[in-house]
Amino acid sequence: MTARTASGVDMKSLHLEKASLVGSILTLLCCVGFGPVLAVLGAIGAGFLINDGILAPLLALFLALGAAGLYLSFRQHHWWPPLLLHLGSAVILFVFTFVLYIPVIVWLGMVGIVTAVVWDSLLKRRHARECAVPCPPTPQEQRHG
User: Fold this and answer.
1) Using one digit for the tens of pLDDT, what is the confidence trace for 56-66?
2) What's the rounded Cα separation, in Å, for the pair 35 and 118?
3) Model confidence at 115, in pLDDT bands (50, 70, 90)?
4) Of 28, 31, 33, 79, which has the fewest beta carbons less than 10 angstroms from its beta carbon?
5) 43 exposed, middle or buried (CB, 10 Å; 0-12, 13-18, 19+)?
6) Is the pTM value of this prediction over 0.85?
7) Strand partners, 12
8) How far apart are alpha carbons 98 and 38 in whole angstroms?
């Protein structure tokens, strides 16, 4: 059985989505050369991170973690659109950051990522309200619990 908040929201997917969103935003800000982030990285001795060879896999990792978190919450509310929005935005972000750099499209991709996480959070809250009693465990939870 997974840990849930008082409103019934799965804590594992909630933390995974938050961490991946913050990581994706910080990585993207490094990629586009956002001054304050670059200054902080240099000041703490992490200037080596300002390299596309490191940032590309790091961004891919955070985007994949976000997709995993959205998939876990999909298993709760059974609604695909936030996950599909995240996947489409992730492809747009990666391609238009590292292959064909077009800043406006990069920022639109980031808006898509944020929108997907917020949308999914709203769906999880609605689902938790609809389940006045705790929802039955999924088959995977039954096998492991």
Assistant:
1) 898 899 899 88
2) 27
3) very high
4) 33
5) exposed
6) no
7) none
8) 18
